[in-house]
Amino acid sequence: DIQLTQSPSSLSASVGDRVTITCRASESVTKYLNWYLQQPGKAPALLMYGVSTLHRGVPSRFSGSGSGTEFTLTITSLRPEDVGTYYCQQSFSTVYTFGQGTKLEIK
Amino acid sequence: QVQLQESGPGLVKPSQTLSLTCNVSGGSVNSGGFYWTWIRQHPGKGLEWIGYMSDTGSLYYNPSLRSRLSIAVDTSTNQFSLRLSSVTAADAAVYYCAACGYTGARYSMDYWGQGTVVTVSS
User: Fold this and answer.
1) CA–CA separation, B2 vs A56, rounded Å?
2) What is the three-state SS of chain B?
3) What is the predicted pLDDT for the residue at B32?
């Protein structure tokens, strides 16, 4: 199976900060990399797919980049509603896998 | 917009079979465009992909669960289901159903159910 490793595992940032989360794959997933946000007490929700395409309704302060084995999710100006756990997920392999998650809190 | 809702017993005895159903509304399970997917989350842990049935009927399962797992789609009720046999305490989790949307360039879980808690206990 393709392993996804996210860093950091947790972080605390202030409202308005720029936040970056990294996802590294154990082998190339080309562009088949998606990001999800699980807000506290809720089901996960798709943020973006195909590395950098925002899902409908997702604000433009979220962006994604990368290819192959290294990817980043960036929030340009953190808002309180962005708290939760972020997961990357690959769909290059027929066995899908998720990263272990990055928990984002507000300072 | 597709909406999903899981249902099933919240308590299962060890060695028995866990059966969950996902009701699909706002779309049809046989209209194409989605792979019908199950995902679980152990308490306080991350997400684990369980498997899916594609719109052509192909099945893809997590290898760690394959020998105990069955996913099926019922077009008459517009639902899809999960059956996991010989459960143990390690199968206690929140189970989510999801609609994996696809185009030529991506496969992603576009829509999720709210999740259902499954406890394994005698």
Assistant:
1) 13
2) CCEEEEECCCEECCCCCEEEEEEEECCCCCCCCEEEEEEEECCCCCEEEEEEECCCCCEEECCCCHHHEEEEEECCCCEEEEEECCCCHHHCEEEEEEEEEEECCEEEEEEECCCEEEEECC
3) 84
**How far from chain centre, in Å, is Cα A62?**
10
Nearest CA in chain A to B45: A100
What does the pLDDT look like over B69-119, one tens digit per residue? 999 999 999 999 999 999 999 999 999 999 999 887 789 999 999 999 999
- Name the interface residues of A facing B (CB cutoff 8 Å): 1, 31-32, 34, 36, 38, 42-46, 49-50, 53, 55, 85, 87, 89, 91, 94-101
- Is the pLDDT at A62 greater than 80, yes or no? yes
- Give the nearest partner residue to A43 out of B63, B108, B113, using CB atoms: B113
pLDDT at site B109: 96
Strand partners for B116 = B95
